[in-house]
Amino acid sequence: MLRVKMVLAAAVLVAASFVSAPLLAGDAVKLVPADALGLLVIDRLDTLDAKVGKAAAGLGLPLPGPLAALQAVPGLSDCLDKESSIAVAVLKGTEPGADPVPVGYVPVKDFAAFVKLFKGEEAGDFVRLTFDDDSVLVAEKDGFAVIVPDDQEQTLAAALKTAGGFAERLGSDLAWIEERDVAAVMSDAGISVFCAKAVEGIETVQQVVRAQGDNDMGAADLLNVYKNVFAVVDQEMEMVGLGLDVQESGDLVLQVRKRFLPAGRIAEGLAVPATPVDALGGLPAEAFIVAGGGRLTPALGKLMMDFSVEVMKAAPKLYGIGQEQADQMLESAQPMMAAMQSITMMLAVGSPDDTIYSRMVGVMEAENAGEYMKAYEEYLQNFAGMVKGSKGIFSMEMESKPIEIDGCKGVEIAMELPKTALSGDAHAEAMLEKMIGPGGKIRVFIVAADDRHVVLGYTNQRLLRQAIAALRSGKSLGREESVKQTAAKVGQGNLGQGFFNPAGLIGFVNNMIAAVAPEGQKIQLPEFPETLPIGWAVNTEGAVVDARIVVPGEILQAGIGYAAQVRQAFQKKE
């Protein structure tokens, strides 16, 4: 079946590669049944071919366009309608419990010539096309060759009879599809199937864990929270789409769209102002791996806290608290969460001597930083009282004391993990210290940097002090030239924005290897070239969330050369 599906996809793509006029996604989509689970559309392939060619030439990469790569089938171009689109839909199986079925829609001007080109043979009401040891069934409908796997006669018959309807269900999202070079969408029906399969997988894992004796912390029960997550997704997500656009500059642009139930809890949390959020405000101009931030509203904050509480309720053995205590935590956290308006975070490259936690810094914006700090300290006191005497991971010893850093008042918190977490293993203890800090203690510093900003740091005060200085000087990470250039490509986001630095990731990996690898086994990856970072911006309007992710072309160019460097480096060691 897998080979048949691959042949079907290949047949559709080969046909698609010869469509040389601007394509309209709606032409193919209008034939897709209303109850389809999902859809892949290849749109404007001639334009895509030109974009790939120009991008490859500009980057100096040997990447042929899709049309140039598939000129091996003479006569195919004459069979096709060059003013339409190509699609692969995924339909429900005709039998209960059957796997979903791919159905291809290829626009043809001369169906007879098309099937003759592939040496088609009559198979009842359909035509069978054979490729090596595999075959597909094909029939004509409204100027399209409709293609299914060879064992799906019922699916093909149903597809020929249907009046379509999927385009109408897409509504305004159809225009979003037509703007993409390539787009894939999953309908609410497809989301339901996906969520059901995910829950089945989770239940299988739970059965395995319990059959092996589970453990004292109730790991199998903890997985129930993810079953609840998929239940919410199934109930509230109406559509998810993924699009790809190739820029002539060489940049790759990924577009992600999610549409939620307008009256649902998620849509309520997405009701944010249209103004863009400052996603890097106060973050120091430090070599980073990932940096970004997003807006927080009371509704969004409550959603996050609700999820945290559900996690704790699902595994009372692990967390050592009951349902009543979990609800008390939620209630106690409300004033703190309501005071927060946005948050930015950065994971810095750091040095081999830094712990993982010490490489993190966060800046929170509040209407009144002093009031936020007061609410935070009250929450800490309540939290300590609620978990006192518990036997789960919250049984850690926690101490707090007032501090002042660079004229900013706040609190320092020290938390020691339960001894059982260390298990007396010297190597495990060393790894834990490298992750969180000396003695296996988590140290958190949180101060009000000014009237509206609260800064958070871990293990030591280095990045926290830099963030305070950045807030005072205005010289934050967002002022860095490479970040500014990527930010211009992705645009602003009213929900969030972020950046990922490939060179920073390689630097981080090398630092960690230097810190934890035994002597004689330390290796170093070649340094990744300094490039623009990957960037993304997230915007929301109504119940729709749109994310735009840009991979600058120079990263693709550098990545090819970097892969060769890595191979050479390891070949020398061998």
What does this structure look like?
- The protein folds into 2 domains: 2-174, no CATH class; 247-573, no CATH class.
- 42% of the residues lie in helices and 25% in strands.
- The two termini are 41 Å apart.
- The chain contains 22 helices and 20 strands.
- The chain has a 20-stranded antiparallel β-sheet, with helices on both faces.
- The chain is α+β, with helices and mostly antiparallel strands.
Radius of gyration: 28 Å
**In percent, how helical is the residue content?**
40-55%
Strand content is 15-25%
Largest sheet: 20 strands, antiparallel
Write down the overall mean pLDDT: 84
Structural class, judged by helices and strands?
Answer: alpha+beta
Instruction: Give the beta-strand count.
Output: 20
What general outline do the C-alpha atoms trace? globular
**How far apart lie the N and C ends?**
41 Å
Identify low-pLDDT runs: 1-25
Domain tally? 2
State the helix count.
Answer: 22
List keywords for this structure.
single chain, 574 residues, alpha+beta, 2 domains, 20-stranded antiparallel β-sheet
Brief overview:
This protein is α+β, with helices and mostly antiparallel strands. 42% of the residues lie in helices and 25% in strands.
Draw up the topology in text.
Elements: H1 2-16, H2 25-29, E1 38-42, H3 45-59, H4 66-69, H5 76-79, E2 86-91, E3 101-107, H6 111-117, E4 121-123, E5 126-131, E6 134-141, E7 144-149, H7 153-161, H8 166-170, H9 173-178, E8 182-186, H10 188-211, H11 219-222, H12 224-236, E9 237-246, E10 252-260, H13 265-269, E11 288-295, H14 298-314, H15 316-319, H16 323-339, E12 340-348, E13 360-366, H17 369-387, E14 397-405, E15 408-416, H18 426-436, E16 441-448, E17 453-458, H19 462-473, H20 481-490, E18 496-500, H21 502-516, E19 534-541, E20 544-551, H22 553-573
Helix pairs in contact: 10-12, 14-16, 16-17
